[in-house]
Amino acid sequence: ESDFGADSECGEQEVIPGKAVMPDLNGRGWINGGHRLIKFSNAVDTLSPTEHIRDGDTIVSSGGMFEMGFFNPGNSKNRYLGIWYKKVSYGTVVWVANRDRPLNTTSGILKVSSNAILQLVSVVDTLSPTEHIRDGDTIVSSGGMFEMGFFNPGNSKNRYLGIWYKKVSYGTVVWVANRDRPLNTTSGILQVSNNGILQLVSVVAQLLDNGNLVIREGSRIIWQSFDYPGDTYLPGMKIGSDLSRGIDRQWTTWKSLDDPSPGQYVIWMDTNGFPQIFEKRGSVLHMRFGPWNGVRYSGMPSLRESPIFGNKFVINEKEIYYQLEEVDSSVVMRMYLNPEGVVTRMIWIDRTQSWLSILAVAPTDSGSPYGLCGPYGTCNSKNFPICSCLDGFVPKRAKDWKAGDWTSGCELRTPLECGDGNAIGFKRVSGVKLPDTRSSRYNLSMNLWECEMECRRHCECTAYANLYVIGSGCLLWFDNLMDIREADETQDLYIRMALSELPSFTTPESASNKKKNMIIAVVSTLICLVLIGLTLAVYASMKKSRSYLKGRVHDFNEDTIGDGPEEDVDLPSFSLSTIFKSTNNFSTSNKLGEGGFGPVYKGGFSQNPGKELIGGVLDDGREIAVKQLSKSSRQGLDEFKNEVRCIAKLQHRNLVKLLGYCIEGDETMLIYEFMANR
């Protein structure tokens, strides 16, 4: 018998269940298996404690996307319990239960125990304290003479646990366990415990259409295969730690295409410092993904969100994990970690009936091997040599660097002394993947200035940066900066170094003089600008007051109507301020009435310079009527000019005489001779 719960992991392999020996879909060898769909409940995607899967049986998810059963991978003769695609890419395995404990027989049975542990068993005649019998299961004596299980006697609907003949007189009961305590359900489970209590539980296993095998007790999920990934990552899976349950979700390769047992490459999330994802081969680090920058992992531009999937990173007191979220459910996507440690993201293309690789990341890519350039070294695969020191740093072992061994890294050209805080500064470095954060500290609420002040307070702080690309949070490094690579990143890194290494460095004396000179220059420049601005403003105001009316009259007289030029209109144009005075600022007491084009005001007006207006009436007694064109009127400037021309030409003793006009800003007015009603 083989139990699997926290040890179970998954894998990716091609398998074609079938009664005959058949080739696999990708030419990986030959496999053997049985294919029979068993309907042990109304829903074929669930497995209750009264049910089981035998080698040759399968269950299918409700949407038909995934199938679960026993199979042989590649040329192996071992039997494994796995989940594979059924609707698309039929036979591609995404999860294996007993990858490191294969069965060497085709009599395997999958059961769900009362404590929610999946069990693989062969036919046995013993029952240990860790095992149980469910309604529907039986155990048989070694010689096959007797069998034990649950049954209904005669026409009764009650269930009893009993022993009966199997080899002869099949079904003749010889012993009943609960003869005075019958069960009225088919969910009975017999457990061998110290006090011999018969317990009933309601536990089912269900294969979901996202490829997740879950064990539920009622509506509560108490175990799921997504917590134990293998070499295939499906949307909805998590990589990281469940701190409350002590589960570390790691991504592991198969040992080979024929052997799904755990291989050499592992991808996992290291939660020391600020969490980040690593890939290792055995105990040797090969690649680092991260850290998380609020959108994706630093140095991984290919993981930007797309219409197909989204990224999710969660960090709290219960869980720390990364999750690939499905955005478009019509697209079938998976990520595959092959036995050589290469990560490939693939989508299924219905037209070609094949997987399309849209991203591949290999641990042997130039610049990708962890720490290739050593501390304070930066890697650029487009350069030769690919390693160089950051500005302000020099190779620690120049001879080794010349020989192409960069692992010793770099050191500060000018050493730092901890006590002199005024002698240090921070060099901004852009366009790089942020260094390893396992020796870092982070704060979610600090801004960049607070982050720098915090780093200055600690001599051992080597660098700082915003935690996220949006400019929030604080990330502090307290060790050598490792695994830096040039990348298309906008997150700046600030590295601690001597002030003399910074481009703007000056001596304290020259810095003081420079500061004074800068202040004088700035103040002088501001004064000059203010004086120039005032001069221009005064000049513009004077010019406007002198030429505004002249420009208006000129524009009016030069205007044309129809096909040819009009004669100049010999009428004076008067300023708005003059009209204001003549009408007492358009006082309501001066208002004569109002027509369709606007109100008419009474006022005093003089054609002779120097005469004063007294109470809106000239000192010689002459009075005027001012017609103010309403701003809401539909009459435009052209119509107004036409009116002026027409009235000016129609001089008659029975017509009111037009004395002039005013066009200023958005105001247009006609000035008439005032005639009182008779």
From TrEMBL:
Q: Which SUPFAM superfamilies match?
A: alpha-D-mannose-specific plant lectins, Protein kinase-like (PK-like)
Q: What CDD domains does UniProt report for this protein, alphabetically?
A: B_lectin, PAN_AP_plant
Q: Name one GO molecular function term.
A: ATP binding
Question: Which segments constitute the Apple domain?
Answer: 418-498
InterPro entries (alphabetical): Bulb-type_lectin_dom, Bulb-type_lectin_dom_sf, Kinase-like_dom_sf, Pan_app, Prot_kinase_dom, S_locus_glycoprot_dom, Ser-Thr/Tyr_kinase_cat_dom
- Give the keywords, sorted: Disulfide bond, Glycoprotein, Membrane, Signal, Transmembrane, Transmembrane helix
A GO BP entry: recognition of pollen
User: Which ranges carry the Protein kinase domain?
Assistant: 586-678
PROSITE patterns attached to this UniProt entry? BULB_LECTIN, PAN, PROTEIN_KINASE_DOM
Highest taxon of the lineage:
Eukaryota
Where, by residue number, does the polypeptide cross the bilayer? 518-540
Domain Bulb-type lectin: where?
Answer: 44-228
**What is the protein's given name?**
Non-specific serine/threonine protein kinase
